[in-house]
């Protein structure tokens, strides 16, 4: 079946950093699976992106925005009490939660909004799940004086209400999307539909390393600052590369940003953590790479959660940002190449890690990042104290407090039955 | 001669334009859908576009999204649509175009899809999210030229790109009337005329225009400019409005006749 034939043969040696090819393919993945109406806009975007990627003026302006507006570089923090508590490897946290707007998303939205400005576009749209990308897009739209419309599933509007309010304060229009389960997938469907009708004057700011070419490569390039900084910082602090990198993967932008500059460092083990939701075996999860098959969703070929007829299935996770049945195409390639190992952490494990970090380090992590943290905590116990595990703390968790209350209420209900 | 080619040359002789009807296979349920489609073919459709339902139809407006959702709830999948195609083919020589998003076909397998679609009696396939840049992976698995891959052209497609895409086209060309999803309001027949003329300058194949065409007046205006007129959302809206109506099939037949009359330019 095509599901199998699309995958690379195991053991095939390919330089993962040579991707994508000229047509936006990451091996058998990626590409541009969109309506013809959007193709000219994607070709125009690709040309502009290639032009400004190598343009000193653009890069200088981008760097200045990252430093003076987003607050980069973010610290690499040694979580001493957490590491001692676990009694094994040293855990370092890349503090993306300390950026302006509270998550790594701002790196990418600054890059894309700057590109939109260079291209003369004055209107931007975005999809959002947890609301972090929506807030980050609304923020840069305010900064650049652009009109902004954000598509957000009704379920996410409910569970991430503070972010809806933030976007509105920032001057963006939030368009609730009630189709499907009312989560990230549906928001992206609706953003694509809107874009088909507004493509001539509107720039679509995609929030992850997903979507049609050039988005997966472009978003990775705007996010790689995370890995570039982390690599330099760990060398300064510890004098060597880490033994393991861990990041959560929904669409996979924070993970791609951290991993990319380390792909050639063979001694560095790399782990991407998907959301196992209520457990992969229950079917209520978002472990696309772990339990999905190859398909086409939202403009690119990659692993997706689908049924035997190629209908996309709903994902499930306590974390709105990981609640997505697709994943960036480059992650699919890295999985096939076995350069990155993809594992999963369930809701309970993520919440446990969330609470542990709050108590031991005084840091409230996003539920998304808590998945990566949970995996690192499991690993640290079994490793020597000379080992270094570097975790991408991709966002802060203030937005998740009401989800946590709902979760605790549901758990209390379960235990009294 | 292939059915699509034959149909357009017959219509040309009669001085008519093609009425191309899109219907989501299996909506409101597979049994009624089959009877309804057979009746619509009988009532005067020239080309049938049979929609394969998909969970995430990103190029479709709310009407076709809902029709797709209803068909999926009825358990309709690609295999079932191919069975319906076989049934429809038994009673008519109408050209049948399978209209799909790529994922159901990719999952079914490109090679198997070609074999089974040809065997079922389909004449062409139109895949909304498979631009020419990506379509080789599908067509390279096709064992023969029994299916026309219907190429899409948009108002945003520049003339040089139109030329390149037209070179690989067969059957007919599908021109999207306006930027937007299916069923969008605000059809501008002046724009349609302009885009059709540009496209005519790069192809000898028939050109059918779709998206947002809902009234008989629209049909006759577009028929003046192009070789065929595609109706999709307007049929699906009618199905939705008459879903409980025991005369649903008669309602659909009458609408087909009304549109068909508007393609006979006197």
Order of helices and strands of chain B: HEHEHHEHHEHEEHEHEHEHH
* CATH architecture name of chain B: Alpha-Beta Barrel
**Structural class, from secondary structure content of chain B?**
alpha/beta
Percent strand of chain A equals: 15-25%
Average pLDDT level of chain B? 97
Number of domains of chain B: 1
Short structural summary:
The complex is a heterodimer of chains A (417) and B (266). Chain A has 417 residues and is α/β, with parallel strands linked by helices. Chain A contains 17 helices and 15 strands.
Describe this structure in words.
The complex is a heterodimer of chains A (417) and B (266). With 417 residues, chain A is α/β, with parallel strands linked by helices. Chain A is 44% helix and 18% strand. In chain A, strands 3, 4, 9, 10, 11, 14 and 15 form a seven-stranded mixed sheet that branches. In chain A, strands 7-6-5-8 form a four-stranded parallel sheet, with helices on both faces. In chain A, strands 1-2 form a two-stranded antiparallel ribbon. Chain A is globular and about 55 Å long. Chain B is globular and about 45 Å long. Chain B starts with a helix and ends with a helix. Chain B has a nine-stranded parallel sheet. The chains are: A alpha/beta (417), B alpha/beta (266).
Keywords:
heterodimer, A: 417 residues, 15 strands, disordered N terminus, B: 266 residues, 9-stranded parallel beta sheet, 14% strand
Element layout with pairings:
The complex is a heterodimer of chains A (417) and B (266).
Chain A: H1 2-5, E1 25-26, E2 29-30, H2 39-53, H3 56-68, E3 76-78, H4 80-86, E4 90-95, H5 105-118, E5 123-128, H6 132-144, E6 147-153, H7 154-159, H8 161-169, E7 173-177, H9 184-198, E8 202-204, H10 215-223, H11 225-238, E9 244-248, H12 253-259, E10 269-279, E11 284-286, H13 288-291, E12 293-297, E13 300-304, H14 329-336, E14 341-346, H15 347-361, H16 367-381, E15 388-393, H17 401-416
Parallel strand pairs in A: 4-15, 5-6, 5-8, 6-7, 9-10, 9-15, 10-14
Antiparallel strand pairs in A: 1-2, 3-4, 10-11, 12-13
Chain B: H1 3-14, E1 18-24, H2 30-43, E2 47-51, H3 62-73, H4 78-91, E3 96-100, H5 102-108, H6 110-120, E4 124-127, H7 132-139, E5 148-149, E6 151-153, H8 159-167, E7 173-176, H9 189-200, E8 207-210, H10 216-225, E9 228-231, H11 233-241, H12 248-262
Parallel strand pairs in B: 1-2, 1-9, 2-3, 3-4, 4-5, 6-7, 7-8, 8-9
């Amino acid at each position: 079946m095509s599901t199998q034939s699309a995958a690379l043969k195991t053991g095939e040696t390919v330089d993962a950093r040579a991707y994508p090819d000229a047509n936006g393919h990451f091996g058998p993945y990626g590409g541009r699976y969109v309506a013809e109406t959007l193709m000219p806009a994607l070709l125009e975007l690709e040309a502009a992106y290639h032009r400004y990627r190598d343009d000193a003026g653009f890069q200088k302006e981008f760097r200045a925005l990252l430093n003076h507006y987003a607050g980069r570089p973010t610290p690499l923090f040694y979580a001493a009490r957490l590491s001692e508590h676990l009694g094994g490897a040293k855990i370092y946290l890349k503090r993306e939660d300390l950026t302006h707007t509270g998550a790594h998303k701002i790196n990418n939205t600054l890059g894309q909004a700057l590109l939109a400005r260079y291209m003369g576009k004055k209107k931007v749209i975005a999809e959002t799940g947890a609301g972090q990308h929506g807030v980050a897009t609304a923020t840069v739209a305010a900064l650049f004086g652009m009109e902004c419309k954000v598509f957000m599933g009704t379920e996410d509007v409910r569970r991430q209400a503070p972010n809806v309010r933030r976007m509105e304060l920032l001057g963006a229009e939030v368009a609730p999307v009630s189709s499907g389960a009312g989560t990230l997938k549906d928001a992206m469907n609706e953003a694509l539909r809107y874009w088909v009708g507004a493509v001539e004057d509107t720039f679509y700011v995609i929030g992850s390393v997903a979507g049609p070419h050039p988005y997966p490569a472009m978003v990775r390039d705007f996010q790689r600052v995370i890995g570039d900084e982390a690599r330099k910082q760990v060398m300064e602090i510890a004098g060597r590369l880490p033994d393991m990198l861990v990041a959560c993967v929904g669409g996979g932008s924070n993970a791609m940003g951290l991993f990319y500059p380390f792909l050639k460092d063979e001694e560095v083990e790399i782990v991407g953590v998907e959301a196992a939701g209520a457990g992969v075996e229950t079917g209520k999860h978002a472990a696309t790479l772990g339990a999905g098959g190859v398909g086409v969703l939202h403009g690119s070929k990659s692993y997706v959660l689908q049924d035997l007829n190629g209908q996309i299935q709903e994902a499930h996770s306590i974390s709105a940002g990981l609640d997505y049945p697709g994943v960036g195409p480059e992650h699919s390639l890295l999985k096939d190449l076995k350069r990155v190992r993809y594992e999963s952490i369930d809701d309970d494990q993520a919440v446990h890690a969330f609470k542990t970090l709050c108590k031991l380090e005084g840091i409230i992590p996003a539920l998304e990042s808590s998945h990566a943290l949970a995996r690192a905590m499991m690993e640290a116990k079994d490793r020597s104290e000379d080992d270094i595990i570097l975790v991408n703390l991709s966002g802060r968790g203030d937005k998740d407090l009401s989800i946590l209350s709902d979760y605790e209420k549901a758990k209390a209900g379960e235990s009294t039955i | 001669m292939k059915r699509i080619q034959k149909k357009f040359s017959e219509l040309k002789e009669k001085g008519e334009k093609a009425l191309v009807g899109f219907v989501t296979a299996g909506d409101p349920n597979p049994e009624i859908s089959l009877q309804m489609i057979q009746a619509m073919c009988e009532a005067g459709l020239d080309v049938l576009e049979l929609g394969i339902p998909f969970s995430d139809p990103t190029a479709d407006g709310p009407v076709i999204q809902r029709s797709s959702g209803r068909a999926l709830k009825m358990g309709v999948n690609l295999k079932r649509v191919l069975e319906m195609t076989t049934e429809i083919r038994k009673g008519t020589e109408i050209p049948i175009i399978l209209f799909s998003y790529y994922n159901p076909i990719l999952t079914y397998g490109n090679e198997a899809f070609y074999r089974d679609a040809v065997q079922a009696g389909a004449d062409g396939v139109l895949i909304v999210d498979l631009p020419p840049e990506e379509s080789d992976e599908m067509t390279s698995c096709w064992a023969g030229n029994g299916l026309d891959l219907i190429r899409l052209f948009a108002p945003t497609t520049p003339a040089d790109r139109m030329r390149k895409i037209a070179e690989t086209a067969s059957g007919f060309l599908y021109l999207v009337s306006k930027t937007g999803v299916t069923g969008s309001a605000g059809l501008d027949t002046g724009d349609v005329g302009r885009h059709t003329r540009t496209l005519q300058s790069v192809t000898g194949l028939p050109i059918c225009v779709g998206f947002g065409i809902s009234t008989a007046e629209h049909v006759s205006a577009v028929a003046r400019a192009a070789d065929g007129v595609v109706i999709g959302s307007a049929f699906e809206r009618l199905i939705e409005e008459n879903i409980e109506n025991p005369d649903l099939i008669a309602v659909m037949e009458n609408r087909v006749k009304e549109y068909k009359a508007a393609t006979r330019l006197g």
